[in-house]
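worker-3 :: picked HTH tetR-type domain-containing protein
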Amino acid sequence: MSTPDRSVREALLDAAAEQLVRCGYRHMRMRDVADAAGVSRQTVYNEFGGKWGLAQAVVMRDNERYLDGIDHILSEHTDLPSAVVAAVLFTLELSADDPIKKAVLTGAGGDELLPLLTTQAEPVLFTASERIVQHALAQWPELDPAAFAEVADAAVRLTMSHMVLPDGPPERVAHFIARMVGRYLRVPGTD
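worker-3 :: tokens ->
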């Protein structure tokens, strides 16, 4: 239920996330989400437009929380290569353990959500790339903004590819992506 400290939108997103994890997208019912949040079903439709809009909002909120973690990780590192390794490792390990990402990636209850991280991933990709670029350029102002934006986009896409279809230990993937970023930007020591 919503309280003065917790908005109706957050209550609905919490209820929908729990439904997605428990029974998958196909079996998530707007009535159950509304009941869990203590609102009418019409309120859910008014807020999100429908089931797909609600699922997208859950994934986007989950992505914002993930990006908060990335900001924290980037802040802990003084050099870009180690920051990239840590960020990619965090991403791959989180995607393996995060219940929302598992529901999306494994198709629990139906594979309808997979496009949110593949063919219809633009909102997630753009948000992640933009936020990573902003943080990194603030932390490492010597980086060329255009070059970093290009390689950050490639690194985010490559990391997402490894989330969807893992290929080897996360540590190896993280170091490979960090080398790619470092070489593209001509960071000393990444040749």
